[in-house]
Amino acid sequence: MNLSITLCNLSHLEALVEISRNTFINAFEKDNNPVDFLAYVNNAFSEDSIKKELLNPNMSFYFLYLDNQLVGYFKLNEKEAQTENLKAASIELERIYVISTFQGKKIGEFMINQAITISIEKNAAFLWLGVWEKNVNAIRFYERIGFKKFGSHNFYIGADKQIDLLYKLDLKQKERQ
Fold this sequence. Notes:
This protein has one domain (3-176): Aminopeptidase (3-Layer(aba) Sandwich). Helices cover 38% and strands 34% of the residues. It has six helices and seven strands. A seven-stranded mixed sheet has the order 1-2-3-4-5-7-6, sandwiched between helices. α1 (13-28) crosses α3. The longest helix has 16 residues, at 13-28. It comes from Mariniflexile jejuense.
C-alpha cells in the first residue's frame, strides 16, 4: 500500500471542496436534520469558505493519496485559527476524513500519524481534536491511539446544538516512546 500526503494549496481548491463535502455528507447526513445539515454543508464547505481557509497561514490541509488516488484529507489549525483558545503550543486536528470505500484499511491511522509528526516538527506540546459525542467509532479510534478526553464544546449544525468531546494527545510523551 503506497500512501503519501501532499500539502494543499489553491490549485487543490476544487478537489478539496468536493472531498470535504462528500466525506462530511457521507459521515453525518443520516444523523441530522436535513434543512440544518444542508445549510451547514453549503456554508462550511463552499468554495469561498474553503478558499479563505487555504489562504490562512495558520490552517493547513493535507491530501492523502493511495497509489496516486485521492482517498482522504486532514486539516491542522495553529495559533488563533484553532476553534478553542488553548495554549499556543497546541495544534488542532479539525478535520480528518477518509472516503468511505477506503475505510478500514488503516488510512485514518496513517493520517493521524502524519498529523502527529507534523505537530512534533512544529514543536507543539499537544495535538487536540473535537469529536461528536455520538460518533462512537471515532471516539474508540482516537482513544486507541492514545488521545485523552479533556473537555467538551458546543458544535452547531444549523440550529441544532451538538456536543463535541475534546481529546488531546501529549506529543512530548509521544516523542519519548
